[in-house]
Design brief:
By secondary structure, the protein is mainly α. The chain is built from 25 helices and 6 strands.
């Protein structure tokens, strides 16, 4: 591994495009095939699902010049993530120009240093506590409402925080992206994976919650322990970081913060923005007095917007009175709260979230007394800065395009299903898990993979005498872990692009930990095979 890291690392675009070519070659070797499909309605959404035992070989569709067309098609297929990356990158570039986040980080770390003097925090380690609490929060977000794309927006907050705490950009990604996806893997109430998979399996929605909650606890603890170990290793010897040289960009930013940490007084534009935001919140408090928050199958009406307005209006006034930087940080906190409310209460996805952060960026720029023209120029600079990450997402989408147009995805799935025959109960469950993990590298979308694999896997589990809940659990783990290394995941590529971590560096770092997660996942599949658990 040391030798590999010493080698010249190819650009992420080079690696992903090479995978596109390999997939095109596979379309010449793997025979074409297709399952018959039927349309079903799941929770008001129409989905096309595979009919078990309907596979038939078809004529090959070898891909040639389509390799170059795949970039365009991949751009179209992943346009929503690409637009999200551009809008997030542009919005945070505006906010970064105000230096508010960096000053906020410095203030936070000063507060942390004061806590370090207390006996309890000195013994536990304040930094350890901060990392653990952040990871638990994001893991819960992943487990409850399937947080994934949303983590892209948080990278530009937690990577600088990690650098300022004496760690590296990898630690920042572990704190939010990996924590959310470990929670996603140990999903308790994730409607996009568990909800769909159980519906397709004919199981009560979110049944078996107790054992999945146990799995979430185990996986989250393991992720936290690994992150704390790596963070401590890097802080003790920064040169052991996989990103020591490449993190110079973030370290220089942190050094600039130390020189520019003087807070500025609010101007009339700061107070104008405060007034407009307060009026909008007052309107929302009356127009959306009760918000229906959905967690799993449970729905509760809560007076969220009145509470948010009641807290932000005095808090925002105090922040604006202190400094313009404090007020901009209060805008960032408000944005994060609204994001959670929007996702849980109003079904927001990347479009609404991108719009929310875009509005935050504009409000922050005006609050700092930037002209409208400067705000636009800063936004475009941010888009330009993040362009490489967006383009890599596009070419990564081309991998799936080549496999679909080459008509070999169903053949791969059918071949994988044959591997399970005659493997016994334990072997079959392990094979399901292994196959789901491999398929996830090609198709990182949990809902799409559920529609493709669950109908067939559920019937196979009946034949071998395994609970359908086990099939869903194998799908759940297989769908989650390999998300964190597959180049076809626009979310992973987007997060790495935001953090300026080359995919090859991430792969060499994360692969050993992924192997640990895969082994733990298999071990967690065994108890329900031999013991009775509710829902299994």
């Amino acid at each position: 591994m040391i030798y590999f890291c010493a080698m010249k690392i190819p650009h992420t675009f080079t690696i992903v495009f090479s995978l596109v070519i390999l997939c095109a070659i596979a379309t010449w070797i793997v025979p074409g095939g297709a399952f018959s499909r039927k349309t079903v309605e799941i929770e008001g959404t129409t989905r096309s699902v595979v009919i078990a035992d309907s596979f038939q070989y078809t004529e090959n569709a070898p891909q040639t010049w389509q390799v170059f067309l795949s970039f365009f098609k991949g751009f179209s297929k992943t346009a929503y993530i690409i637009a999200f990356i551009f809008m997030i990158g542009g919005a945070f570039w505006i906010m970064n120009a105000t230096n508010a986040i960096n000053i906020g980080i410095v203030s936070f770390l000063r507060s942390v240093e004061k806590l370090q003097k207390l006996r309890f925090f000195k013994k536990v380690g304040v930094n350890n506590l901060v990392i653990s609490l952040i990871m638990i929060m994001f893991s819960l977000f992943g487990a409850i409402f399937g947080m994934s794309e949303e983590t892209i927006a948080f990278i530009v907050i937690f990577v600088p925080l990690s650098i300022s705490m004496g760690y590296d950009s990898v630690t920042g990604v572990l704190m939010c992206y990996v924590a959310a996806h470990v929670g996603f893997s140990g999903a308790m109430l994730n409607p996009f994976t568990i909800g769909i998979a159980q519906e397709l399996s004919g199981l009560p929605t979110f049944s078996g919650l107790e054992y999945r909650a146990l799995c979430w606890v185990v996986l989250t603890i393991i992720a936290i322990v690994f992150t704390l170990w790596y963070a401590h290793r890097v802080k003790k010897n920064p040169k052991k970081s996989f990103m020591y040289e490449l993190d110079n960009y973030w370290r220089e930013k942190a050094d600039e913060t130390q020189e520019l940490q003087k807070k500025q007084k609010s101007t009339y534009t700061t107070w104008a923005v405060y007034g407009i935001v307060s009026l909008i919140l007052i309107y929302c408090a009356f127009a959306f007095t009760y918000s229906a928050i959905t967690i799993g199958n449970n729905m509760v009406s809560v007076m969220l917007f009145p509470v948010i307005a009641a807290i932000f209006i005095p808090f925002g006034f105090y922040s604006a009175y202190k400094s313009v930087h404090s007020y901009i940080m209060s805008l960032l906190l408000l944005t994060i709260v609204l994001l959670i409310v929007g996702v849980l209460g109003y079904g927001w996805y990347v479009g609404e979230i991108a719009g929310l952060f875009f509005a935050m960026g504009i409000a922050a720029g005006f609050a700092f007394h930037f002209t409208f023209d400067k705000v636009i120029r800063l936004f475009l600079e941010g888009c330009k800065d993040i362009m490489n990450a967006a383009l890599v997402v596009a070419i990564a989408g081309g991998i799936i395009i080549i496999l679909e147009d080459g008509k070999i995805i169903d053949t791969i799935l059918y071949g994988a299903s044959q591997v399970m025959s005659g493997a016994g109960r334990t072997g079959s469950v392990g094979a399901m898990y292994f196959i789901q993990s491999l398929i996830n590298i090609i198709i990182p979308s949990g809902s799409a993979k559920a529609a493709l694999t669950i109908p067939m896997m559920a019937e196979f589990s009946d034949i071998i005498g395994v609970s359908r809940q086990m099939t869903v659990l194998a799908f759940q783990f297989g769908d989650g872990f390999t998300n964190m290394i597959t180049p076809t995941s626009g979310v992973l590529i987007g997060c790495l692009g935001m953090a300026r971590i080359p995919f090859s560096k991430w792969l060499s770092f994360f692969l050993p930990f992924l192997c640990i997660l895969l082994v733990i996942g298999f071990l967690l599949l065994l108890p329900p095979l031999f013991m009775q658990f509710n829902g299994f």
